[in-house]
């Protein structure tokens, strides 16, 4: 089935912006339908997006859904599915800049809490083959942040952005099969979340909140472990967000690509 003008208009926004919050995606869908005199039905948004995905898959593009690991807000991003390497960013950054970004990714994936201090990030320049001044590295981190590849939390720590996680999910899993951990609940890559004190089970903050909500005593969801779950002080207090995961409609959930391939850690 061919794409209609409404599909094309919808897709254009993703081409120019890369990633959009769920709430805006729903508005965009309604506006695109209205503009071309079509009835919009939010229950059919997933179908609408899937039709676009079928058409753009030969171009190795896909509109994929993801969550912000801290706020649990949902996003849709247009991602490149062809390369599982980071070279796709090479039109914007030099080889040395990409090397620096890779080092940041590695440190974040290797960390327990999915963040790193900016001082630690700047120190990574000493590991680069080609010299990079700390001042230049500082500017570069700001550029990665502006381009939505890194995110700074209120404490000034560096984390991978929602866009980076959506886009580089496969790269991270290929590159660091022993370090990349998936959330025990949603089976998505989990960098910032809660970790069991005994085993390697990890949960996104929002997934932990939902899972433990039904339990009086908090235990590791792995039946083989079942250790008491640490009361995590890092769980952020989230403002109620209308696009948070718990309010997702089933039709939107259909977009989520659940992969359950598990990898043992370290
Ligand atoms: Zn999760
Ligand atoms: Zn455990």
Verbal overview:
It contains nine helices and seven strands, in the order αβααββαααββαββαα. It has 266 residues and is an alpha+beta fold. Among the domains are: 76 residues, Alpha-Beta Complex (Aspartate Aminotransferase, domain 1); 81 residues, Orthogonal Bundle (Arc Repressor Mutant, subunit A). The strands form three sheets. A three-stranded antiparallel beta sheet has the order 1-3-2, with helices on both faces. Helix 1 runs antiparallel to helix 2. One zinc ion binds next to strand 7. InterPro entries: C1-like_sf, Nse1, Nse1_RING_C4HC3-type, PKC_DAG/PE, WH-like_DNA-bd_sf, Znf_RING/FYVE/PHD. This is Non-structural maintenance of chromosomes element 1 homolog. GO terms for molecular function: ubiquitin protein ligase activity; zinc ion binding. Keywords: Chromosome, DNA damage, DNA recombination, DNA repair, Metal-binding, Nucleus, Telomere, Transferase, Ubl conjugation, Ubl conjugation pathway, Zinc, Zinc-finger.
Could you give the distance between the termini? 47 Å
Q: What is the helix fraction of residues, given as a range? A: 25-40%
Taken from the alpha-carbon principal axes, the silhouette is globular
SSE succession: HEHHEEHHHEEHEEHH
Q: What summary fits the major beta sheet?
A: 3 strands, antiparallel
Largest sheet, spatial ordering of strands: 1-3-2
Bound molecules: zinc ion
**CATH 2nd-level architecture of the domain at 86-166:** Orthogonal Bundle
What is the tally of beta strands?
7
Secondary-structure class: alpha+beta
CATH topology-level name of the domain at 86-166: Arc Repressor Mutant, subunit A
Q: CATH superfamily of the domain at 86-166, please?
A: Winged helix-like DNA-binding domain superfamily/Winged helix DNA-binding domain
Instruction: Provide the β-strand percentage band.
Output: 5-15%
**Which consecutive residue ranges, at least 5 long each, have pLDDT under 50?**
237-254, 256-266
Query: How many H/I helices?
Result: 9
| CATH class category label of the domain at 86-166 | Mainly Alpha
Structural Rg: 19 Å
The whole-number mean of residue pLDDT values reads 86
Family: Belongs to the NSE1 family.
Protein name: Non-structural maintenance of chromosomes element 1 homolog
EC number: 2.3.2.27
GO cellular component, one term: nucleus
């Amino acid at each position: 089935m061919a794409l209609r003008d409404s599909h094309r208009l919808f897709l254009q926004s993703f081409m120019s912006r890369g990633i959009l919050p769920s709430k805006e995606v729903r508005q965009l869908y309604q506006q695109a339908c209205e503009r071309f005199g079509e009835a919009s039905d939010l229950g059919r948004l997933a179908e609408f997006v899937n039709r676009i995905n079928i058409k753009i898959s030969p171009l190795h593009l896909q509109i994929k859904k993801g969550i912000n690991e801290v706020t649990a807000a949902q996003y849709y991003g247009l991602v490149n599915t062809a390369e599982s390497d980071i070279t796709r960013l090479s039109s914007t950054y030099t080889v040395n800049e990409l090397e620096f970004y890779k080092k940041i990714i590695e440190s974040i994936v290797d960390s327990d809490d999915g963040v790193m201090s900016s001082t630690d990030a700047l120190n990574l320049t000493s590991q680069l083959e080609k010299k990079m001044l700390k001042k230049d590295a500082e500017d570069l981190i700001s550029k990665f942040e502006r381009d939505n590849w890194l995110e700074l939390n209120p404490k000034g720590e560096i984390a991978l952005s929602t866009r980076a996680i959506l886009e580089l999910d496969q790269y991270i899993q290929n590159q660091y099969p022993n370090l990349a951990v998936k959330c025990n609940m949603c089976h998505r890559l989990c960098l910032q979340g809660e970790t069991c004190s005994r085993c390697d089970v990890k949960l996104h903050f929002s997934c932990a909140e939902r899972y433990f909500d039904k339990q009086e005593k908090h235990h590791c969801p792995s039946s083989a472990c079942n250790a008491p779950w640490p009361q995590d002080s890092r769980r952020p207090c989230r403002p109620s967000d209308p696009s948070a995961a718990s309010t997702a409609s089933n039709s939107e959930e259909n977009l989520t690509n659940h992969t359950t391939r598990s990898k043992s850690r370290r």
